[in-house]
Hints:
One of its GO terms (biological process) is proteolysis. The protein is an alpha/beta fold. The chain has helices at 2-14, 23-32, 53-62, 66-73, 86-101, 182-202, 223-230, 266-277, 294-298, 328-346; strands at residues 16-20, 42-46, 105-106, 115-120, 123-128, 131-136, 144-153, 161-167, 172-174, 177-179, 209-215, 239-245, 255-259, 281-284, 304-309. The strands form 4 sheets. Strands 3, 4, 7, 8, 11, 12, 13, 14 and 15 form a 9-stranded mixed beta sheet that branches. The protein is globular. The two termini are 40 Å apart. Bound molecules: zinc ion (ZN).
Amino acid sequence: MQTRRVFLKILLGLGAIALPWTGVGYKVKSVVEPLLAQPRAKLYLIPPEAQTINEYFQSESLSRTAMDDILALSSGEMEGRRAGAVGEGRASQYLSREMSLLGLKPLGDKERSYAQAFTIPEVKEEFVGSRLTFSVGNTQMLRAPSLNLLGGLVGKTEKEIIVISAHYDHLGVYKGNVYPGANDNASGVACVLGVIRRLVREKETPRKTVVFAFWSAEEMGFLGSKTFVANPTIPLERIKAVVNVDTVGNGMVGNFGLWTANTTDIACQAVQKAAADAGASAMQVESGGHNSDQISFAQAGIPAVTLLAREWLVNNHTPQDSLGNVKIEQVELAADIVYRAIKSLAY
Ligand SMILES: [Zn+2]
């Protein structure tokens, strides 16, 4: 009965069917898979050494790389991940699947859910030079649904929390052009997923609880992180520091910047030291009127910092922010910095 339930969940949730690792399994896969093109489904062969189907998929998730995540999130299927649009839904499914397979505790607004639901107002598109941006339009119009995703690695105490975050939304499709957002911010999401996988692989229980958050509607004025601060799914006063990652994948490798209101707080200090230890540079830089989700927390008096590539503006908010705009070694270095920061803040 238990097995059947797991099987059914995978079937319904992921469009995937698991088969035992036998000659019959191979045969069924080769014959049936081509017939499943519409709707698209995939057959998996489960090797005998995997104790459960879940274990098999977890090992598959643990072997994924930053490149795999960026490829998936900036693919045509994700349609630029605009908050409120179908691409955001696909991206949120991808992320909640990874969070579930990696065993994070669901910290959404309902029990056993990673999602925190909120609504977004109508937005207007406008160009600032060659950059497409959103401004909030009529707030009385019918609002579209959007989702933050939150999951935790429970520490020895849940009374002290460190948040690691990245926004996963981008600009979507405008006038027939897809804005893939490979750097902004599939790179930051890949960086956070890389940190989760590294910590899960190490199996060490942290001293404090680490919460991983993927915000949406950042491009519409930090709406996801603002929603969380206004209606937190975990007590806000327990959050001791926030390390946010945004657009970390381009420019000279090792050349990062920090957006922070306070260079002496523990979040900024931890990231600066982590960058130095990783052989990179991360100095406070002028935001020049731009910002990211750390601002929602800073305004609530919580130490918060955003790590970004120093040259983040190159190709930003243009259709050219595709895979070619990202250097994978730069994303991996950013992940190493965030990993070192979290080790010092929470372990
Ligand atoms: Zn952006």
